Amino acid sequence: MYLKKLYVLRMKEGTAVLEHLDFSKKIISKLLVVDVKIDEEDKALILLSSLPETYDHIVTTMLYNKETFILKEVMTTLLSNEIRKGQIKRIEKVQVWSS
Prior knowledge:
Blueprint: H1 2-7, H2 17-33, H3 40-49, H4 56-65, H5 71-85
Helix pairs in contact: 3-5
């Protein structure tokens, strides 16, 4: 069930990126406990596809400027965007979901 939840995960408009990343990370962690493995590129693509329409400019830019996706880069881009918009003050440390 968690695997299905991950693939249909959608960030609600107005939800903080940090909150969405935390929720997504919890699902990934639970999948790892039951030996479901998702590679880093798939995690990055799932994260990008879960974003609301207000993030379309970021998603489009990332999809068309990359041949491969690194989850940490996607997360850093999203968090940097939040800092730029003034949603968060600064990033202490970006934690990538463990494989």
